[in-house]
Amino acid sequence: MTIKHPYQTQPDKAFWKKIVGNHDPLDIAEWYSPKYPINNSPIATAGSCFAQHIGKKLKAKGFNFIDMEPAPGPLDEESYHDFGYHMYSARYGNIYSSRQLVQLLERALGKFVPADKYWLKDDGFVDPFRPTIEPEPYLSQQELNAHQDHHLACVRALFKKTTLFIFTLGLTEAWASKEDGAVFPVAPGVAGGVYTPEKYELINLSYIDVIKDLEKFMKLARQLNRKMRFMFTVSPVPLMATATTEQVIVASQYSKAVLRAAAGHLAHKYALVDYFPSYEIISSHVMRSQFYNADMRTVSQAGVNHVMAQFFSAHTPPAQRPAVANKKRRPPHTTLPTTDVHCDEELLSVFGAQP
Fold first, then answer.
1. How many other C-beta atoms lie within 10 A of the C-beta of residue 35?
2. What would the 3-class secondary structure string for 15-32 be?
3. 128-150: per-residue pLDDT in tens?
């Protein structure tokens, strides 16, 4: 066959009329073509609050999901999320930005020791890098330090064990210390600490910033574990609030565009990086906003299920292992509804001007 132009040999999924056309949005297929199989990989997850859905579904489907910081036996299952357990593969809470991610690993490896050791809240102390990980402040700095040291040891162990790290990028806006550049999940003063413009500043990461952060993170992670591979995805959840001068929808679009472009660049550049389009599956206009709740921000249960159905159509879940009879063993944490997620960013909703 004589090839007259480069589109002549493209598959159907490359053509709008063939893959979208008059199809029902739920029938649009071939969103994702994986780079590598993951069935036997020890998998860890982290990211913005939408990433909590991914970990829960992986566990429920029998993948080799890692939890290096599980809940202690005396804690009842209904309280897991209140104390930051079983949200991700360690008790780091939500990691919204690429800068927060790379600094977490640097802190775990002893390569970065931030100046902010604690934030005061009420009559106690909170971890500046996990200010909502406990429902109440720690009673002393010593108690905080003990919890933090244990957590960072779990993070080190996690990166030595996992061979697939799935990270959901959420935001480009972040609050940082002017002294050492330490980045926090929420602004000082929201969940502890005191905001002063002399000490803290807003940063809004650029495309180049995100790429540099993630490349630095991957280099550090692979120094611990040469088998490590990465999968990036972008949260379809818009910003709850912006600290820029832009309108919140415009600010959200900037943030998502930067994150999507950076993740795509890394997936094209590196064979060990894959990209999963959860952002596109939920937020593309062809989906007609059907997967957003009434607030047009949070993703519905149906949306979560549809996203993960696309994932599992590409990565077939492994056969379920027979349960091991052991009365003392805590059952896998899969009973909470997938819509039950913990988002630090939700705290910002109370600060809008009142009518």
1. 14
2. CHHHHCCCCCHHHCCCCC
3. 999 999 999 999 999 999 999 99
